[in-house]
């Protein structure tokens, strides 16, 4: 017999990358993420992460595993209770959000006019796009208050009775010279 036929057949070497292969030149980020830039002179843009996230449930947890339902209960995001929750941007919370990312919508909360203080909590409004806006009650200007008082005390000012009488006279005598 032919000795070539009796040799064990070697498996074909896979052309695809094996699981253990890691190409050189990756940038390692905290959290176990390695980024491989397209260009060698790649520089990350400056970005400061937000402190809070607005989490909204967009899909029902029905027919999903119990652990996903448990995570939604821990986040206090439930279709029956509340569809929106505010959570901290910490690694533990991000890991939970990652597990239910197909059921929720995560929006970073920004403060365009500065973060609210303790006395501003009553006047804050959180929009759907993640903007937290503080709307305080406006105080009148001192000059405007003085102008209002001088107008009220002006003796040449017409009171409401005089204005009513004058407009009624002009209405009744429209063609005889009321105007």
UniProtKB/TrEMBL annotation:
Q: Which GO terms describe its biological process?
A: translation
| Ribosomal protein found in the keyword field | yes
A GO cellular component term found in this entry reads:
large ribosomal subunit
Keyword set, alphabetical order: Mitochondrion, Ribonucleoprotein, Ribosomal protein, Transit peptide
Q: Which GO terms describe its molecular function?
A: structural constituent of ribosome
Q: Does the keyword Transit peptide apply?
A: yes
List the InterPro entries hit by this protein, alphabetically. Ribo_uL30_ferredoxin-like_sf, Ribosomal_uL30_bac-type, Ribosomal_uL30_ferredoxin-like
Where does the protein end up?
Answer: Mitochondrion
Q: Which family does it belong to?
A: Belongs to the universal ribosomal protein uL30 family.
Entry-linked PANTHER family? LARGE RIBOSOMAL SUBUNIT PROTEIN UL30M, MITOCHONDRIAL RIBOSOMAL PROTEIN L30
What is this protein's record name?
Large ribosomal subunit protein uL30m
> What organism is the protein native to?
Danaus plexippus plexippus
